[in-house]
Amino acid sequence: MSPLPPLASLRAFEAAARHLSFKRAADELGVTPTAISHQVRLLEEIIGSKLFERQPRKVALTEIGVMMFPPLRDAFSSMAKAVGQARRNTGQRAVTLTSTTAFAAKWLVPRIKRFSAQNPDITLRIHPSESVVDLHAGAADCAIRYGRAPFAELVSEPLFEERFAPICNPRLGIRDLADLKHQTLLHSEWRKQDEFTPSWRRWCDIAGVTDIDTRGGAVFTDDSHVIQATIAGQGIALLSSVLVHDDLRSGLLTQPFGPDLAGLGYHFVYPEAAAGNANIQAVRSWLSAEVSNTPENADTAAMEQKRTKLPEG
Asked: Which domain of life is it from (predicted)?
């Protein structure tokens, strides 16, 4: 049997081929796009053939790449399932929950202590990823997904609906639209665009604002970064009411005016075959309690009385 190439190179190729993106592969594996590119080039040198056609802002598989991808994808899937089965057979109670990096940092992490207190015999692992993790492959057991349900081959349970609103550091002194005109607009870059994608252009259309350049400002590819920039007072952003809920309650951030933009929903999802898994049901119960105990509606009503609300139509 001929020796295999380094496992890291095979893993990098498999992830890049599955996403057709070095960046998304890097997000999934927790490395840089440069590291993915290096590992892929190493594999290409070993087999003596190109695996990707590198094009501006995207990549495509070559004929050799198309041939190699399916067996490698199946092999890594089988390995993940074997590890998951071995972990279950040890008797250790552990469950892995995946979400976006921003949701993990701003919503899940502050609440993990209560899960541990309620379930001292279960280890909860948080797996942040900007790519959609395949829950059937064993990398994670359950997930928080943002979007429209249902999700194929997954049990989906709604948690809450999203809203986006103009948010800033109160030290900026923004109180009305006259102040907005002199502020830096902060933007989040969304991979998928639809009628629910928050943008300053959409907000201005709904608010009836026509004299603001919605193209200017700073653009961030990660929600965590745009939130941090807003907290640092670098400008005003359209932020998730879910992700900055605690920051609004503490006074670290403020919503000076409306309107809000409707978003989609957050859902707790897991494979249909795992519906009876006690660990997943423990996470389900914890999330349900956290959502029920979040006084977001009361806070929103209180803020509505304090701020100038613009017409939404």
From this structure: Bacteria
Q: Which two tokens stand for residue 301?
A: 């009503």
Domain containing residue 22? 7-87
Residue 103 token pair: 């949701």
Res. 151: pLDDT tops 70? yes
Sequence-ordered alpha helix ranges (H) in the chain: 7-19, 22-29, 33-47, 63-89, 101-103, 112-118, 177-180, 200-207, 223-231, 245-250, 278-292, 296-306
Q: In the chain, what is the greatest distance between 2 CA atoms, to the nearest angstrom?
A: 73
Q: Sign of the C-alpha dihedral, residues 27, 32, 37, 39? A: negative
The 3-state DSSP class for residue 144 equals: strand
CB-CB contact of 151 with 158 (8 Å): no
Residues of the chain with pLDDT > 70, as a percent, come to 90
- Counted residue by residue, the chain has a size of 313
Torsion of CA 78, 82, 84, 86, to 10 degrees: 180
99 and 225, same structural domain?
no
- Rounded to whole angstroms, the Cα distance separating 179 from 181 reads 5
Judgement on whether residues 155 and 275 belong to the same structural domain of the protein: yes
Least confident of 56-65, 169-178, 304-313: 304-313
Cα 155 → chain centroid: 19
CATH of the domain at 196: 3.40.190.10
Measured in whole angstroms, how far is the alpha carbon of residue 223 from the centre of its chain? 8
Which residues make beta-bridge pairs with 124? 95
Point out the least confidently predicted range of 21-35, 108-122, 197-211, 226-240: 21-35
| Residues 115/143, Cβ–Cβ less than 8 Å | no
Q: Are residues 301 and 205 in the same domain?
A: yes
The pTM assigned to this predicted structure is 0.69
What secondary structure letter does DSSP report for 108?
Answer: I
Per the structure, the count of domains in the chain is: 3
